[in-house]
């Protein structure tokens, strides 16, 4: 049948079972928004306050569901405003398709109004970039974009569409998408047997679980393997929730701000089974001193990760779910009592809480009031690390954060996407007073969409992580880190039609959260803490992960 290019785009989105789009209209994408008007009963469009917020929302939608997030933006500044969001998704392997408007083909290369080469700009931060020159290219480009975004190691794809293609007529034929155009690599049973043999022989093994476990939906297989052979599990920031934090074999997060027992277990292990992890520098510290006595098995869907950051003794290029399923029957039951007793000795005692708010009692109260069955999105900074350390994530896709790029301002948009995708869940956005300022305009989206998102701002009047580094590594020369106390969070929330609270003690926080949870609108809860409370432990840059500065060193 003959359709306008804009209609072809919308039909292709329906083919891909897209139910939500996040975006912001403008001149060069206006024909697509005109077509969207006729599809408004089938596809929900969320108008955000800024294109960056739209990309973060699409990302949060994707991370909380496993489906491809979709974003629309116009040309020029609209397109360039998506760059940080695209890079954030790329670094964390989040599936996203961004469709941008472009000036008509006959105006390309003439410095036309709002013309920018967004394909060129985003080439290093996308899995693939499409530029359509004819209306006939639209359908195959969109179909391929979704296949690429979702298959293998997921990631963002951009499709740049000149305005004239959106109004031209073209032939369209319905198509049933097939993600198995790129079938998973079959598991080599000989490789699976070798992995099982290594595990059975090891005395001090550790499973190092990365974000690939969540992407592969392999949490069940990971848990079964750990339990059968009593192997302790450490996680990366991106895999929080892949293994129940309350499980006795869980050691929590490893790395720069990892738990002492997690880092010590990795450092003293004789076998590391790395599952869907990339050995980020934030995890390994000094690679020359990383687990020197351990053999390393690296399992990943992306072969480019093998040897990129860390040596390996054995690598398997395959979907981690398939590998773990194949290995499990071959692994012997083993209590590993000596190894697990040694790990228990490394576990730190629970610190006492005080009436004055601090990172310990804040998260204890939040979890107590909100419960475990929530989705938590964060920005980047001290509050992000405290969340990873102190929140007992029990299920996959319940912790949404920017790990690879470290994007301040990510959290609120991501929370919006997660809440839209999971209307029956409570979504909490945890931020710092530095990060929160970067994209607080998205409170307008929270309000206009009537989303019950609760934003918790941990307010210490400073750029906390920067100040912490200045204290520890720059001789306490606090340059440009203090934040003037100019924001009245209660009035700010009220201005957006939300409930606002400012609290300074445990009783106030508990009361505010209880009221916010029972309210019919979103809320902002600002919690004041001591400016010098730092994230601990911390591995100094360039050090081995067993060389941690602990709490008493910092406060």
UniProtKB/TrEMBL annotation:
Binds 1 thiamine pyrophosphate per subunit. Binds 1 Mg(2+) ion per subunit. GO terms for biological process: isoleucine biosynthetic process; L-valine biosynthetic process. Signal peptide: none annotated. GO terms for cellular component: acetolactate synthase complex. This is Acetolactate synthase. The gene is ilvB. Its EC number is 2.2.1.6. Residues 379-525 form the Thiamine pyrophosphate enzyme TPP-binding domain. Belongs to the TPP enzyme family. It is an enzyme of class 2 (transferase). It catalyses: 2 pyruvate + H(+) = (2S)-2-acetolactate + CO2. Pathway: Amino-acid biosynthesis; L-isoleucine biosynthesis; L-isoleucine from 2-oxobutanoate: step 1/4; Amino-acid biosynthesis; L-valine biosynthesis; L-valine from pyruvate: step 1/4. One of its GO terms (molecular function) is thiamine pyrophosphate binding. Residues 4-120 form the Thiamine pyrophosphate enzyme N-terminal TPP-binding domain. Its cofactor is thiamine diphosphate; Mg(2+). It comes from the Bacteria. Residues 194-326 form the Thiamine pyrophosphate enzyme central domain. Keywords: Amino-acid biosynthesis, Branched-chain amino acid biosynthesis, FAD, Flavoprotein, Magnesium, Metal-binding, Thiamine pyrophosphate, Transferase. It holds the Pfam family TPP_enzyme_M. InterPro entries: Acetolactate_synth_lsu, AHAS_TPP, DHS-like_NAD/FAD-binding_dom, THDP-binding, Thiamin_PyroP_enz_cen_dom, Thiamin_PyroP_enz_TPP-bd_dom, TPP-bd_CS, TPP_enz. PROSITE patterns: TPP_ENZYMES (PS00187).
